[in-house]
Every structure is written in structure tokens, then in C-alpha cells.
Amino acid sequence: MHPILLLVAQRLALGLLLIFAASILIFAGTSILPGDVAQSILGQSATPQALANLRAELGMDQPPVTRYFNWLGGVLQGDLGTALTNGRDIAESLSSRLGNTLFLAFWAAIIAVPLAIALGLIAVRYKDRWPDKVISAVTLTTISIPEFMIGYLLIFFLSIQLPQLIMSLEFLSDGVRGWLLANLRFSSVAMMNDSMSLVEKIKSITLPIMVLTLVVLAHMMRMTRAAILNVMQSAYIETAELKGLGMLRIIRTHAFPNAIAPIVNVVMLNLAYLVVGVVVIEVVFAYPGMGQYLVDHVSKRDVPVVQACGLIFATVYIGLNLVADIVSILTNPRLRHPK
Amino acid sequence: MTEPLLKVRGLRIGATIHPPGEKSRHIDIVHGVDFDLAPGRVLGLIGESGAGKSTIGLAAMAYGRGGVRITGGTVTLNGRDILSTPFRDVRRLRGGEVTYVSQSAAASFNPAKQIMEQVTEAAIFQGKFTRKEAEDRAIALFRKLGLPGPDTIGSRYPHQVSGGQLQRCMTALALCPQPDLVVFDEPTTALDVTTQIDVLAAIKEAIRDTGVAALYITHDLAVVAQVADDIMVLQQGRMVEMGTTDQIINAPKEDYTRALVSVRSITHDEKTPTQTPVLSVTDITARYSGTDFDVLKDITVDLHPGQTLAVVGESGSGKSTLARVITGLLPPSAGQITFAGRPLSPDLAARSKTDLRELQMIYQIADTAMNPRQTVGTIIGRPLEFYFGLRGAEKQRRIQELLDAIELGKGFQDRYPAELSGGQKQRVCIARALAAEPRLIICDEVTSALDPLVADGILKLLLSLQKSEDMAYLFITHDLATVRAIADSIAVMYQGRVLRYGPKSQALSPPFDDYTDLLLSSVPEMRLGWLEDVLDSRKMESGGN
User: Fold this and answer.
1) Option in B63, B157, B173 nearest A333 (CB)
2) How many helices (H) and strands (E) does chain B have?
3) pLDDT (tens digit, 9 = 90+) per residue, B250-309?
4) Percent of chain B residues topping a pLDDT of 70
């Protein structure tokens, strides 16, 4: 067997093992949460008999190990259980939420990743000159501001101030003004429903996409810059310079292929953040994604929902890091072309 | 007289350096150098590190490495002053009219690209040849340079060919665009002697057949004598002497050149073995974990008190692994080691403090063997505290003694490693080993990274310390000249085995086994025509068989 297949298979097996370990942690973590689910469903005035009945019904009287394997068995068959608070099937309520979260993450990534890498390449090309400094300063500023703050700032300037500014531009004809108002409308509430067309959906989430882009840009840009600058110290870059090649060509064809592994790693970390770390943004823009769903049910002590969300987040996180690992293996010429 | 291809006048080169904790300042590297190079001639640039050879070579391409700036003078290539040419035109010249072969081909090839793509890149990019033409040229060059499978080797990746082969590929890379001038920067220095001779012959033949002019940069006078028509000797950025190769080798005018020619003047009388060896290595076999072959196979050698055992071999022969086994870093899978009459535990953790103290080691790269944030006094003082519990005035007195022993003065105690020269750093490492008052010091290629004259000084110091302190040395090296200079007995290693072992006078006299013969005959000699003589005699032998 090609050694690279073996390595990839090893990584996949390790990933599965990690997800399994994460499921144990999630289950154990939610089991030791203070408070009693039966109590919180039935309220303070419930009789001890009613509480015991409910516990038996929920399977809470069984030992934790049994409960864990019952839960895991269900998960493996696609059954995430039912929410305690409203009795609905979790898998069903989650799927549309997860879809929304992935939709937002996808469009943020489509913009942020190429932009970050391009900015990183430009920063290398103009290292220590003004374009490099401007790029670093701007991205570091946006990453330093808390993301809810960026969200509110964008709402303030783009949703509120911009229409007023357009209205006050008296030299514009009514037609132009109307067109501008209609097309430069940034909704401060990211609504989402099935009847909307793709364009309408994207328009609706323009502001959250902008915020997320600004938040993840700096990490990826700086890692791209650092990884390529590191490669630029290599003797083979000097060889390329002494062939008379231009700087951009050297960066593109000689440096970038050798810097892919660290860049992919940080890109995947940020993609994972776009999926599991958007709770705050979803709340700011009232976006119906996973984060909000999770926060709602944590406050209601709806343990099965918290477990299901935790498991999905863990799987996404581990999965994306696994992809980064595998890409690193695949881009290593020594592994791809063994002696 | 024809117009020279390359004309250098009053070349001055400087650099801005940024010493840690100090203001950056400007230093001069090359102080006004003049020379001419006619088409098709080979000029050898020779000197020790810091002489400015590589810097001058790169200046012929209007290139400065790192913070290096060309500050004055003219460099005229093909009648055009390339220092005042706009950068866009300089780029057209690099990789076209003038190309470069670096010391480490392994680092100079992009690991992510196939060899063919890299060899032909400049020729295609500069518009000299079409892809098809360039690839045909590359294959012809691979064949001329004696590479195996010239039609297919281009589709390999750099890590898939050996170091010697890659160095030939680098030569093909430089010759592919049909340049007028090639700058060879120590192209064989990183290779084993047995590989160096083949690469050297291939380079020499390629230069002759293509009629290209070359600047050949090296610190090894014996090597440059084989390929250069003329030689320029440089010292600290100034020309010492320039003349034909014959004149420089056989009738040097300047003292410095004479010192370079006559280096390795040490004579050492072989000592007879005593009754009981200080170190006995018996039937040692070792392998690295996770591998399935033995790096060392049945090694048996003895080392007698106050004597030097030289372990010779090329890279990969297992000499450094032997040192790791003796020091306990790699427990062997079979065999015993006896040290000072007692069995030595295979595992480092199980050794007594006396074992640790009496067995010291000095490394090849003194730079990485010292903590850059400790002063020389702290570095030497540490073993004094650790092994002997010395403190205060007594420790200071001992540090001073040790500094005197390594011929460094009082002022060195408060210096940091970065403030020392290469030779001084290695001396501090010797003092650190000496501080433990050892019976045996393992010296792993301790002079390989040093200039010949500096290395000579280190070897003399080691020999005089051996006499006064009665220490034994296990001296690992690939350099046969060093072996001749200092060894009492010799072990020749090849592929994990000891091929030949005995007192120096026996080991270095015929009859030889094939490998030792190859090794000895590959060491460059400082005379004209040596390369041809060796190759002719080898051809005759193989023809006679």
C-alpha cells in the first residue's frame, strides 16, 4: 500500500477516536450539571411521586454508563432524542438551524479565505513597506475589537447612518436616490426563511458576513504572511532570484506551494470558528442558527439538546482539523513521492 | 588582447549588521578588488571564511545576500556595467548570461517541484530556449554529467536523488540556459571525498566542453588547483595575491598564500598500545527505533589511555552513531562497552556521575553546543560546580586556568558566544570538556566547520592537551588529512561495519581493501593534474579487470 494512504487512514481512525472521546466528555459534562431536569420541567410544586415517574420515563433512574450507551446508540442511528422542553425531535429542529449556520459560515469563508491569503501575499511582496503596514494595522484593529462591537458599529453606520446620508444628498435625483436606498440596504436583522431566494438570503446576511470576515481575516492573513516569509529565507528562493524571476512569480510558484501546510491549518481553525464560534453574532443579528438554539436550551436545562449541539460542534471542529492534517500530508512531496 | 568577459574594478561591498542588543552598524566586507576574466577561463577565488569570496561571486550577478550592499566600483559583464543597470535588465541577465551553483544543492532545489522543471525554468523564462529545446539540453547535460538514467531523472523530486547527484543537477541547472559565466560557490564542499572527486571531474569536463567561463569559489586550495586556470587569494576582503594556478601552488609570493599551501604541517609520532585499554567496545550492534536495519554491526575497537583512535568514514557510515552508543544516548541491541576497567551501562540514565564526568564530548558545531545567553565563564564554570562542587574564588581560579589552557586570555570570561570567532568557540567547548577532568573525550568532526588554518590550531591544542592531561580521544572525522595528523590508531567504517582497524602505520599502508583504497586516493592533493592522474589510474584498473 502507498505509505500516504496508510498515514491518511491513521489520521481518519484517530479522528473517529477523538470524536468518541469528545462524546464521553460531553455526556459526562452535561451529567454533572447542577439542577434537576424533572424539577425544572414540572416546577417547584411537583410531588415527589410525579418527579420519580418523570425520571423513570426519561430513563434518568438508570446508571450513567447505560444511559451513555443508549444515547450513543441513538446518535449512531441518527436519533438525537427529543427536546425535553417542547417534546420535538431534536434532529429535525437542528437540521434547519445547522443549515443556516453552515450557510453563513460558507459565505463568510468564500470571502474571507481568498481575501486573507491575497492580503498575506501582498504583505509579503511589500514587506516592511506601507502596504504591509496598512494591511497589518487594519486587520489587527478589527481582530482587537470585540465582535459584537463590530456588529453594532456596522449596524449603526450601514443600516442607520447610510440611508440618512443618501437621503440628505440633495443633488441626487429621486430616481437615483431610490435606487441607492433599495440596493444599499443593510438589514440589521438577518431574517431567514425557506421562501426567500438565494440572492435575498445573501442580502439578508450581508452584515453578519462582513463582521465574521473582519474577525477571521487577521489570523489567516498573518499566518499566510509568516509562513511565506519563513519559506522566503530558504536557499531555493535565492536560486529562483538568481534565475532572474520576478518577485510575484517567486512567491506564487516557489514559496506558496511550500507554505500550504501551515496556511491550511490556520484556515481550517478559522472555518471551525465560523461554525462553532458564531453564537454572539447570531444573537446580535437575531439569526436563527445553531448558536442561538444552543443558548436558548442551555438556559432551559434541556440536556439532550445541549448534548446534540455539543456533539455536532465537536464533530465539525475535529473534522475540519482532520482535513487540515490530511492536506498537510498530501502537500508534502517527501510523503507523496517516496524514494 | 580580447575584451574580458567580466571586468571588476575597485569593487567595494558593505553590509548593515544588527548585533543583538546593540545599534545596527555598517561594516565593510570587500575593500576594493580588481580582476579580469576572459571568455572561457576559470578563475579560482580562494580564502578562509570572511574573506568575501561568495560576496564577490554574487556581485558578478549584481546580487547582495541579506543586508549586503555593493557600495562602490564597477562590474562590467559583456561590456555593460551591471551595477548601474536598471533592476529590470539585471533580472534578464541573471539566469541567462550568468548563473550560479551553490554549496548545498539539497537546500537550493525547491522540494515541491520536479528537477526538470527547475533545471529548465531559467532558460525558458529568459526566452533563451523553448520548453522542448531546454528539456533536450537538460537531458544532454544530465548525460554529460554522468547522472544515472538521464532521460528520466528530471521527473524525480530533489529528495529522491543523492546529494552528489543533486549537485550535478545543480550544475546542469546552471549550464542549461547556455550562460557566458557560471559562479560555482563551493560546489563540492558539502560532499564526501569519494563523491567529491566524481562531481569535480564532471564539473571540470562540463566547463571544458561548453567553453563557459567560471568563477570557482572554495576554501580548499587542493580542489581549486584541479579546475582553475588562475587563482586569486583573498583575505578579509582584500586581494593577497593573484596568478596562474601553477604559480600560486608551486611558487607563492605572499606569506599568507604559503601558509595556505603548507597547511597541515602537524607531525605526530604514533604511540604504541599499552596493556589495558581505557575504552573497549565489543561486538556492538545498534539500530534506531522504528527502523529495520542495523546502523552498526559487530563493532569492536579498543582505545588506549592517552592515545587517539580516529574513526573515519563517509556520511551514513555510522561513525556518529557509534559516539551516541558510547555516550549512552542510543542503547545498543547487542555488545558491551568497558570504560576504565568497569562495564559501562548501555543506558545513559543508569550511569554514575563518575562515568558521566570521565567521558566528555565535543561537537562539530560549537555554535549550537553553547547556550547563547551564557557567558564563557558560566559555560566553563558549570561542570566545575556540577562535578566538583566548586564555588567562588576557587571556581574563578580554575576557570582562569582552563582559559589559559585553551590559549584565551582573561578578558574572555565575560564574553558571550556570539562575540567569539569560530575557532574561539570551539576552544571554549574544549575547555568545558576539560573542566570535567575526563579520561576520554569524544570529538565529533570538531574541525570540519573551521577554516584550515584555524582547524590546524585546534588540532595542535588538542594534541598538547592530550600530552599534559593524559586523555584519550575518540576522533570522529571524514577528513583523512586530520587522521594522518593526529591518530595513533584508525578504524575505517563503511555501512555500519569496521572495514579496517589497527595502528595508524598499518592501517594507512598497503595492501588496502577496495574501499580504503578508494577513500585514500580520493583525497585531493595540492598539485596540478592530480585529478586526471587519479581518474586515469582508476580507468586503467577497471579496464585491466
Assistant:
1) B157
2) 20, 20
3) 888 998 888 888 766 666 777 777 778 899 999 999 988 777 788 899 999 999 998 999
4) 97
Q: Do the Cβ atoms of A236 and B104 come within 8 Å?
A: no
Rounded to whole angstroms, how far apart are CA atoms B14 and B66? Answer: 11
Neighboring chain A residues of B173 at a CB cutoff of 8 Å: 239
Amino acid A216 reads V
Residues B251, B286 share a domain: no
Q: What per-residue confidence (pLDDT) applies to B413?
A: 86
Q: Does domain A3-34+80-336 have CATH number 1.10.3720.10?
A: yes
C-alpha–C-alpha distance, residues A239 and A156, integer Å: 52
Report the distance separating Cα A221 and Cα A328, nearest Å. 18
A228 touches chain B (CB under 8 A): no
CB atoms within 10 A of CB A32: 7
Instruction: Mark which of B198, B228, B262 sits at the end of a domain.
Output: B262
Neighbours of B256 (CB within 10 A): 17
* Higher pLDDT pick, B245 / B316: B245
**pLDDT at B545 (0 to 100):** 46
d(CA A93, CA A99): 11
Q: How many CB atoms lie within 10 A of CB A25?
A: 11
What ipTM score was computed for the predicted complex, to two decimals? Answer: 0.78
pLDDT in tens, A132-163: 999 999 988 988 988 889 989 999 998 888 88
Is A334 within 8 Å of B122 when comparing Cβ atoms? no
Average pLDDT over residues B138-159: 90
Q: How far is A225 from chain B (nearest CA, A)?
A: 19
For residue A160, the distance in angstroms to the closest alpha carbon of chain B comes to 51
State whether residue A76 is helix, strand or coil: helix
For residue B137, being part of any structural domain is answered with yes
Cβ contacts (< 8 Å) between B121 and chain A: which residues? Answer: 240, 243, 245
Q: How many residues does chain B have?
A: 545
- Within 8 A of B91 by CB-CB distance, chain A residues are 244-246
How many structural domains are present in chain B?
Answer: 2
C-alpha cell read off for B106:
539539497
**Which single residue is written with the C-alpha cell 436606498?**
A181
- To probe the interface with B, which of A242, A327, A337 has the most B CB atoms within 10 Å? A242
pLDDT of residue B264: 61
Is A99:A289 a contact under the CB 8 Å cutoff? no
DSSP state of B427: H
pTM metric for this prediction: 0.79
Which CATH number covers residue B497? 3.40.50.300
B115 and B185 together in one domain:
yes
Residue B404, pLDDT above cutoff 60: yes
Q: Which of A120-124, B107-111, B532-536 has the lowest mean pLDDT?
A: B532-536
Do residue A235 and residue B107 have CB atoms under 8 angstroms apart? yes
Give the pLDDT confidence score for residue B265 in this predicted structure: 61
Cross-chain Cβ contact A245/B160 below 8 Å: no
C-alpha distances (whole Å) from B375 to each of A263, B384, B394, B418, B446 are 39, 15, 18, 10, 21
Are A258 and B111 a contacting pair at CB < 8 A?
yes
Q: Are residues B291 and B250 in the same domain?
A: no
Task: Kindly list the domain boundaries of chain A, sorted by start residue.
Answer: 3-34+80-336
Report DSSP letters for B481-493, one per residue. HHHHHH-SEEEEE
* Beta-strand pair B213-218/B181-185: parallel
Same domain? For B121 and B234 the reply is yes
R_g of chain B computed on alpha carbons: 25
Cis before B511 (ω within 30): yes
Give the separation between CA A289 and CA A303, rounded to whole angstroms.
18
Q: Least CB-CB distance to B125: which of A245, A258, A334?
A: A245
Q: Band the pLDDT of B119: cuts 50, 70, 90.
A: very high
Q: What is the mean pLDDT of chain A?
A: 86
The 10s digit of each residue's pLDDT in B435-445 is 999 999 999 98
